[in-house]
Design goal:
- Helices cover 41% and strands 24% of the residues.
- By secondary structure, it is of the alpha+beta class.
- It has 3 domains: 3-97, 2-Layer Sandwich (Beta-Lactamase), CATH 3.30.450.20; 115-173, no CATH class; 177-334, Histidine kinase-like ATPase, C-terminal domain (Heat Shock Protein 90, 2-Layer Sandwich), CATH 3.30.565.
- It has a 5-stranded antiparallel beta sheet. Strands 7-9-10-12-11 form a 5-stranded mixed beta sheet. A two-stranded antiparallel ribbon has the order 6-8.
- Helix 4 (99-146) packs antiparallel against helix 5 (150-170) and helix 4 (99-146) crosses helix 8.
- The protein is elongated.
- The two termini are 34 Å apart.
- It comes from Marinihelvus fidelis.
- It holds the Pfam family HATPase_c.
- It catalyses: ATP + protein L-histidine = ADP + protein N-phospho-L-histidine.
- Keywords: ATP-binding, Kinase, Nucleotide-binding, Phosphoprotein, Transferase, Two-component regulatory system.
- It is an enzyme of class 2 (transferase).
Length: 334
Amino acid sequence: MSLIEELDTAVVELDAANCILRVNGAAEQCLSANRDRLAGHPIDRIWGIPEPLYVALQDIRTDYRPRRLHECKMAGGFYDCHIGVLDAGHLLLEFHSTGWSRQQQQLQQMEVQTGLLNLLRRNLGHEIRNPLGGIRGAAQMLVAELEERELGTLAQLIIREVDRVEELIQSFWQPQMEREPLDIHRALEEALQLLETEHGFKINVVRDYDPSIPEVNGDGTAIRQLFVNLARNAAQSGATTISARTRVEHDSALFEHSGYLIRVDVEDDGDGVPERLRPLLFLPMVTGRRDGTGLGLALAQQIAADHGGLMSYDALEHGSRFTLRIPARENGHE
C-alpha cells in the first residue's frame, strides 16, 4: 500500500490540463466517486466541485502560486483545500476534512449549554419559587380584601403573572424520561399537524420523510415537544414555508454510538437568527424576540441530550435549519 493511501488527507493529482491523474481512498470519499470513474476526467466535470475551487484552479494557471481555500463544500462534506504546484504543470490538491473539528465544537457547545441549563434548573426552585409563593399568597389576600375594586383587579393580575412564571419554571423540571420504541415520524407529524391547526394552514408545510428510518428508544411526549418547539420557533420567525426532512446517517464521529443515527432537519424561510445570537442559541433565556422566553430551543437541546442526541443550527440564505441527530434503536436496521 502506498503512503498516500494511508493518509486521512484526501489527495488529488492533476495534469497540466486539469485532468485527474490519481486519487487516494480519502479523496474518493471527498469527491463521492471511485477512482476508476475519476481517472482521466477534467476536474471541472466532476459533480460537487464548488465554484471557488474552479476559480482557484484557473487563477493558479496564470501565476503558478499555491492557493489555500477554507470550508469548501465538496460532495463528501466540508474541507480546507491546499493547491500545490508540481513539476510539468501538475497540481496537487490536498483536502483536509473540517467535519471532525466542526462536530467537536458542536459537542462542546452542547455540553456547555446543557450544563448551564441544569445549573439554572437546580437554582430556580430555591431562588425563585419560594419568593413567588409569598407574592402569590399576599396577592390572594389583597383580592379577598379588595374584592371587585380596581386594585382587586390588579391583584388578580399579579396572581396570573405569578402563575405564568411558575409554569415557565415547571417546564425546566422534566420528569424522568421514559424509554420505549418510538416512531420518530409520528412525533414529528403530530407537531406539524398542531402547527397547521394553530396557524389555520397559512404556513405551507413540506414533508420529505425516509420511510425506511428505524425506531428510536425515546420518550414520545418529550420528542414531540422538541418538534413543537422547533415548529413554533419557525412560525414565530415569520416563515411562510416549513420543510421537515428525515434521513439515516452512519457512524458519526460526534457520538460514541457506533450504529445508525436518525437525522431530522426542520427548515424555514423566516427571518433567521441574528449572527450575534447564533453561538448562544441553545442557552436558556437567549431570544431575539421581545416577547420570547428563550426557553424553547434550550429545552429542545436538553431533550436531545437526554436521548443521547444533539441539536444544531445552520443559517440558510433565506431562513434557518435546525437539525436533530439521535441514535436509532440497536438492531433497528436489519
